[in-house]
Every structure is written in structure tokens, then in C-alpha cells.
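[Meeting: bench + compute handoff]

Bench side (C.D.) handed over the final construct sequence. Compute side (W.E.) agreed to return the predicted structure before the next meeting so the bench team could plan truncations. Sequence as handed over:
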Amino acid sequence: MAGDAEGPLLNLDEPLSFWGGVDPATGVITQPRHPGHGRCVAGTVLALPRGIGSSSSSAILLELIHNGHGPVALLLGRADAILALGVVVSREMGYGTIPVLECDVSALPRVGVARVHAEGGVTVFGAAS
């Protein structure tokens, strides 16, 4: 899904399950052993190597977008139809949408401000060297 978005980059090294791994009311990562535990996905350009887990992850992402606690964009190292479905359903229900791109997230810096471009590019500013 294309679109423009900008926000702080949250580039996670490990896959994440939204079902049971992200609080749908706050956007906080609750998966106990995840390196991002306690971080919040709200308002971020969220980069993941891949999604994991239940098909219910699409419902959690839908709820996060609807309540304003979701990421502003989703960058995936491997395409994930379940997460993309949550974004599509959100758009169809009139809740809004976010860009979802498949890209090499391992090549992105860990911090900075990321801008996702409608044509599919990602630019990161203020990245630490």
C-alpha cells in the first residue's frame, strides 16, 4: 500500500506478533521476551524483519489504526498478508490507512526520522552513524 508518512523510526531486530505482543489500546509492545518490550509503536515508522503469529494480528493493527495508537507506516523485510489485511480493512471501514512497504529493513539505521514516499522509497534523517 502506497502513501506518504513521516515519523520516528522504530526498527526492531526481531519479528513481532501483534496478537498478544502489542497492547491494542496503547500501542506498547507487551511481548515479554521481545527486545522492544515496553516501546510504543504509536506514531512511528515501524520496521520489522517480518510479522509472526496469529491471523488476529490484522485485527490488532486495525484497532491500533482506528484508535490513533498505530504506526504511521509499516516497513517489512518480508511481505505479510495478515498485517496488510488489517490496513486494507481499516481503509475500507473508513478508519484511515498507512503505507505498507516491503524493503530491506536490515539496511535501515536503528534511529532517526523516516519519511516514506508514495512511490515506495524510504529516507531516514538524523540517523546516528
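W.E. noted at the follow-up: The longest strand covers residues 5-11. C.D. will use this when planning the next construct.
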